[in-house]
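Hey, I'm writing a tutorial for new members on how sequence and structure tokens pair up, and I'd like a real worked example in the thread rather than a made-up one. If someone can provide the structure for the chain below, I'll link this post from the tutorial.
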Amino acid sequence: MAGSYEDRDGKIWLDGQLVEWRDAQVHILTHAMHYASSVFEGERCYEGKIFKSREHSKRLIKSGQLIDFEIPYTVDEIEAAKQAALDANGLKDAYVRAVAWRGAGNDMGVASRGNPVRMAVAVWAWGNYYGDAKMKGAKLDIAKWRRPDPATAPSQAKAAGLYMIATMSKHAAEDKGCSDAMMFDYRGYVAEATGANIFFVKDGEVHTPTPDAFLNGITRQTVIDMLKEKGIKVNERHITPEELESFEQCWLTGTAAEVTPVGQIGDYNFEVGALTRDISESYEKLVRN
């Protein structure tokens, strides 16, 4: 599938029914478009099975609650919607995007409790998020924007509004020939990439930032469990910028990113080492198990 995302063949699940891809539209006064009252999930389907699908559906509902709305579907109903979208498009290996938002209604200001909450599921074929970086290691910029204090935004919600600074940071990185950008948190600690969590290796141990100011990703949690099962010590802690030069390996995790090696962050270089390759390969096997 190629071309503009608004002009494709296929079906999208929208508010309880399958509609033609090009007809899945919302009104210009949709509240989410003006005030970012939207949450979403990114998931991957491998050989007909969405990896950790129910965990994603539960998080979608929780994200809605964190930004003050209730999604009018149960986990089972969301699961059925995702399967219906996959079946309607004849896809067994696909990216799955479930999204819920406050639509157009009686309110068109900051408050929007009178507006309906809507939901959609779209699916499409999607390869490596970072292209050939999956094999040779991604090159990352260091973003000027920081992940906000959790007292100013619900950091554990996968909410559209929290990605604004991620978009700007990724654009700036691409302008420099990079695949992505690493972001610090509001205190200056290493946080994550624009849409993926980050891991480092030093002396046989793994170090990853404590997710107290950014989303604790499902793939992140999966990889930590994998590492522990392999007997590898995982240190979840605050990581300072000065430590970057001491790390030997680095990788990113996320549903779209899967496990992607990192070869460079700013002026710091990393090897795509044995542990990075092992975790990447082990994850590939796990999602298809």
